[in-house]
Amino acid sequence: MRIPKPSTLLLLAAVILTRMPSCESTPASDQATLEGTLTIFHAGSLAVPFEHMIAAFHRAYPQVEVQREIAGSRTAIRKVTELGKLADVIASADYRAIEQLMFPEFADWYICFATNQMVIAYTDHSLYQDQIDRSNWYEILTRDGVEYGHSDPDADPCGYRTLLVWQLAERHYQVPGLYHKLVAGCPSRNMRPKETDLIALLQAGALDYAFVYRSLAQQHGLRFLELPPQIDLSDPGYREFYAAARIEISGIEPGTAQTQVGEPIVYALTIPKNAPRADLGLAFVEFVLSPEGQAVMGRHGQSPIVPAYANDRQKVPPRLKSLIE
Asked: Could you tell me the pTM of the whole model?
């Protein structure tokens, strides 16, 4: 899948909102009367930008109440596909999670709307914080007494992306066995369900370092180390190099596995086929893709993809097609 580089925000068409739970357009006069409860399940790393996105959306549509649940992307999706919960929008930190867990029963399209990059977050109290740099970080992390962590690879894309970064680091720095050394040095007590859960551990001093997204480190005022583009999963120019890394995580059925291959980080959203208020979900997706929504993402450290693009334009609701490539 091609990943456009973030660019200057484009002027997009004004949105037309609807009251009926479908993806068809309605008269502009109905915009003022859009009402009901919108339910959003989204990735932990979207917590801050979506908080502001929802506030702006509510100002535009005060009769719409928004309820959201925050979890690792795979956990968020499984609430719909395995637990039978209902959502009007799913926003994932990895478009692959939508493909792997929702297609074809619960969704058949998604729109890619933002990017990110992997960094190592730390604080002023982290061991060796005055020495760490992009050439020696793996040596610092594996020193005695240093605690580092990541999120759960089976629940959260940031978790399996961390393991992919470690594999790529072994190749990039040409240090045989580095991946397994990093895995061995990170005990299960340093793993949490989603990357945002690591912030409290860093701030409390339980962790010295955590592998998170750059946007998350910026939003929480953490210090962070930028990794080389060859391993930070941010640069489409290194797509072929990224693809050399791969790990297995839990599959759809118990006891099965899925292979995750290294690739640039891309966020995506969709409206589940069984969404109870698909009309409200559509209105929110329109808002996310609008210039105002893109600006919200940018202000909170996540580069919007402009223009956004879909896996299958023909399956995207008609009202969204003017907002995507």
From this structure: 0.89
